């Protein structure tokens, strides 16, 4: 124990360094949702509908081709109008994925059981070099 007390600074450096080494893995794990590749498969195989829950300005600056814009604060009212068939997969997207996570709860409450979030949001889509269009 005297060794630990005398060398507390070394232990602190070791703990911080270990945390920094683990951070990328933990951050990637925080990207819950489907990967961009899985989203493309859902779109192609199951005719998934992409719903961008970002604000209109964000949507206009860039969005997934064919996506429909329903801001998260209007989701409860407008999602049933935009996606009439509750049996098709719905992919919820926003710039980072945070608002889409909130929107997932609303979509599930409305009966969209196949609703998923694009993990990492539009940023992950762009990092995967997938096409983005501007309004």
Please give a quick description of this structure.
This protein has 135 residues and is α/β, with parallel strands linked by helices. The chain has helices spanning 2-6, 8-30, 36-45, 56-61, 75-82, 98-109, 121-127, and strands spanning 49-52, 63-64, 68-69, 90-93, 115-117, 132-133.
Key terms:
135 residues; alpha/beta; 4-stranded parallel beta sheet; two-stranded antiparallel sheet; 7 helices; 6 strands; elongated
What ranges have pLDDT less than 50 throughout 5 or more consecutive residues?
A: none
User: What is the succession of H and E elements?
Assistant: HHHEHEEHEHEHE
Q: Indicate the mean pLDDT.
A: 89
Whole-Å distance between the termini? 64 Å
Look at the helices and sheets and give the structural class: alpha/beta
Shape verdict: elongated
Strand content: 5-15%
Query: The biggest beta sheet, please?
Result: 4 strands, parallel
User: What is the percent of helical residues?
Assistant: 40-55%
Number of DSSP strands?
6
Number of helices: 7
- Adjacency order of strands in the biggest sheet: 3-1-4-5
**Gyration radius, rounded:** 20 Å
Can you give a write-up of this model?
It is a single chain. With 135 residues, the protein is an alpha/beta fold. It has helices at 2-6, 8-30, 36-45, 56-61, 75-82, 98-109, 121-127; strands at residues 49-52, 63-64, 68-69, 90-93, 115-117, 132-133. The strands form two sheets. A four-stranded parallel β-sheet has the order 3-1-4-5, with helices on one face. Helix 6 links the parallel strand 4 (90-93) and strand 5 (115-117). The relative contact order is 0.18. The model has no long low-confidence stretch (mean pLDDT 89).
């Amino acid at each position: 124990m005297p060794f630990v007390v005398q060398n507390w600074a070394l232990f602190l450096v070791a703990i911080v360094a270990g945390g920094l080494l683990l951070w990328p893995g933990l951050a990637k794990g925080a990207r819950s949702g489907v990967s961009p590749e899985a989203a493309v498969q859902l779109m192609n195989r199951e005719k998934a509908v992409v719903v961008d829950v970002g604000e209109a300005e964000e949507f206009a600056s860039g969005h997934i081709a064919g996506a429909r814009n329903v801001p998260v604060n209007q989701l409860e009212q407008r999602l049933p109008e935009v996606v009439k068939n509750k049996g098709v997969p719905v992919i919820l997207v926003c710039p980072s994925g945070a608002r889409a996570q909130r929107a997932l709860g609303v979509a599930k409450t409305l009966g969209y059981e196949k609703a998923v979030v694009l993990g990492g949001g539009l940023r992950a889509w762009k990092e995967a070099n997938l096409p983005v269009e501007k309004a």
